[in-house]
Design brief:
globular; mainly alpha; 215 residues
């Protein structure tokens, strides 16, 4: 548990820090509360922190036998944030799918060998993340336009994206139940989990610029 907590803290920290380093100008408009925008941390200091955190992440990955996944995540994060991989929806979606594998596989491997059953769970979640991550791009269409991003809603249109996501989220509980729950037998706990996953929950996004609400 301790290894998992430390690993995931560095997994998140290295990616978020590199993401904010490359988005200072954009964050000044949409996310003014971030430390780099407020001047609580300098870009030079943030770079030093990222290098130190990435090296520590790789070192712990090596010591704990999950170095390959740690290396893959550092490479994916660098490509996504430093090399512009997030500029197009294909790259962003791919990063989220592969990043999910680079997240879940080492977390399992820290406690037990990766089995076929584990890979079925990991790949199901990774594919779902790859397919449905355009939901995230509906929050800031204006900012993405200004910054020249070719996100899924910008390429295919907001209406098409919302229909696509609605269908995807309606099908997701069925896929999860059929692939991850049904093969192990219908107990009341498993059926209950499947029903819970199928309950629609409204999500409300707040635009930090003008405080408008998007459901």
């Amino acid at each position: 548990m301790l290894h998992g907590l430390v690993y995931m803290a560095l997994y998140s920290y290295t990616f978020d820090l590199s993401n904010q380093l490359m988005g200072i100008a954009e964050d000044q408009m949409g996310k003014p509360d971030r430390p780099l925008v407020r001047g609580l941390c300098t870009p030079r200091g943030a770079w030093k922190r990222w290098i130190a955190a990435a090296l520590l992440f790789l070192l712990l990955g090596w010591l704990w036998g999950v170095w390959l996944w740690a290396a893959i995540w550092v490479l994916l994060g660098s490509w996504h944030n430093f090399l512009g991989g997030a500029k197009h929806w294909v790259g962003k979606n791919l990063l989220n799918g592969l990043g999910t594998i680079a997240q879940l596989a080492p977390m399992w491997q820290l406690s037990a060998p990766l089995t076929t059953s584990a890979w079925i769970w990991i790949m199901t979640i990774a594919i779902a993340n790859f397919v449905l991550i355009p939901l995230q791009d509906l929050r800031d269409l204006t900012g993405d336009h200004v910054n020249g991003r070719r996100t899924f809603p910008i390429v295919f249109g907001e209406t098409v994206t919302r229909i696509y996501l609605a269908v995807g989220f309606l099908l997701l509980p069925l896929v999860v139940f059929r692939v991850l729950i049904f093969p192990f037998g219908p107990t009341w706990i498993r059926v209950g989990c499947g029903v819970f996953l199928a309950v629609p929950i409204p999500i409300r996004f707040v635009n930090p610029v003008d405080n408008t609400h998007l459901v």
